[in-house]
């Protein structure tokens, strides 16, 4: 395996592992997570709710036990589109190839413990693509307008970064084009910035400083402001000596991103203006992830959790 293949494999495997680890605690506060699992989660754990099949009828998913979520399913589907097209992609390819994969090909869905369609697992904001493109025949370049603004498009943009290794601006541009079919506002912007981060990180010899520079070079509006706020907070935290307690870093990062996050501290009780388009807001996930990368100098053997 050459260096580039190794980087690609590492990105995709790392994304799946992170997805499987994080899925078990998604949507719960740090305090709830520690109470449920008797401390911080640093490996594979079972479902947060023992009666996961019926506890939340809208989401009867077996999250936990190492199961990947819809984020990994969508990542793999996008790779399949790249494999079929053998070229760079745009919003029209989402309509012609990605959506048909979501609604026309059964595959193993770990959280459903059965073969099913990707459509039957993804969140409502991702189902939007099927509604707008397959049934509504919207222009793919603007089909994302009107959707719930969330992190969904960002979560499967790693392959875009990988086809632009060493070219963060190219990755940003292609991701922005592709996700016009899915998202808008800061949900779309985060997808572009994440793809740029992957493109920078996957380049041979890349450093955390390279990734930091790349994301600040391409980011706009609230996404840029949120990333800068997190970087500044992490820099100050480290300059003051930091802490051996990862909870302290998590609190610093959360406080920095909080003014830009519309969802709020209680994921299951959101404000009335949550997930609306804005030029001053940002998804939480991307700035937080970048903050942890900077705080740990890119090390992956220490697992902070928000």
Quick check: average pLDDT? 95
Question: CATH homologous superfamily - what is it?
Answer: ADP-ribosylation/Crystallin J1
* Shape label: globular
Low-confidence stretches: none
Count up the domains: 1
- Number of beta strands: 2
* Rg calculated over all Cα atoms: 19 Å
CATH architectural grouping: Orthogonal Bundle
Distance between the termini: 35 Å
| Structural class by helix and strand composition | mainly alpha
Structural notes for this entry:
The chain is an all-alpha fold and 306 residues long. The chain has one domain: ADP-ribosylation/Crystallin J1 (ADP-ribosylglycohydrolase fold, Orthogonal Bundle), CATH 1.10.4080. The protein is built from 13 helices and 2 strands; from the N terminus they run αααααββαααααααα. Helix 4 crosses helix 5 and helix 8 (168-178) packs antiparallel against helix 9. The chain is globular and about 55 Å long.
List keywords for this structure.
mainly alpha; 306 residues; 2 strands; two-stranded antiparallel ribbon; ADP-ribosylglycohydrolase fold; 53% helix
Care to give the gist of this entry?
The chain has 13 helices and 2 strands, in the order αααααββαααααααα. With 306 residues, the chain is mostly helical. The protein has a two-stranded antiparallel sheet with strand order 1-2.
What's the SSE blueprint?
Blueprint: H1 3-23, H2 30-37, H3 52-55, H4 70-85, H5 91-104, E1 107-109, E2 114-116, H6 124-135, H7 158-162, H8 168-178, H9 185-201, H10 208-218, H11 221-239, H12 246-257, H13 285-295
Antiparallel strand pairs: 1-2
Helix pairs in contact: 4-5, 5-6, 8-9, 9-10, 11-12, 11-13, 12-13
């Amino acid at each position: 395996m050459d260096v580039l293949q190794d980087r690609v494999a590492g990105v995709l495997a790392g994304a799946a592992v992170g997805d499987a680890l994080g899925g078990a605690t998604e949507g719960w506060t740090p305090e709830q997570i520690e109470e449920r699992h008797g401390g911080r989660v640093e490996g594979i754990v079972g479902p947060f709710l023992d009666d996961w099949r019926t506890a939340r009828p809208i989401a009867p998913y077996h999250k936990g036990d190492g199961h990947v979520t819809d984020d990994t399913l969508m990542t793999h589907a996008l790779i399949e589109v790249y494999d079929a097209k053998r070229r760079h992609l745009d919003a029209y390819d989402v309509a012609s190839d990605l959506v048909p994969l979501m609604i026309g090909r059964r595959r193993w869905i770990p959280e459903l413990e059965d073969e099913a369609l990707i459509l039957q697992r993804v969140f409502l904001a991702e189902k939007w693509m099927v509604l707008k493109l397959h049934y509504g025949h919207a222009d793919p370049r603007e089909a994302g307008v009107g959707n719930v603004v969330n992190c969904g498009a960002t979560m499967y943009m790693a392959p875009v970064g990988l086809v632009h290794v060493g070219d963060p601006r190219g990755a940003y541009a292609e991701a922005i084009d592709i996700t016009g079919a899915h998202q808008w506002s800061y949900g779309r912007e985060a997808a572009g910035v994440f793809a740029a981060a992957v493109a920078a990180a996957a380049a041979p010899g890349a450093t955390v400083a390279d990734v930091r520079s790349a994301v600040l070079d391409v980011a706009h509006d609230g996404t840029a402001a949120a990333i800068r706020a997190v970087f500044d907070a992490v820099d100050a935290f480290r300059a003051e000596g930091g802490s051996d307690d990862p909870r302290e870093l998590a609190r610093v990062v959360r406080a920095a991103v909080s003014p830009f996050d519309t969802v709020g501290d209680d994921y299951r009780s959101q404000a009335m203006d949550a997930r609306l388009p804005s030029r001053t807001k940002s998804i939480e996930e991307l700035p937080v992830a970048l903050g942890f990368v900077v705080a740990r100098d890119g090390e992956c053997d220490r697992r902070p959790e928000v």
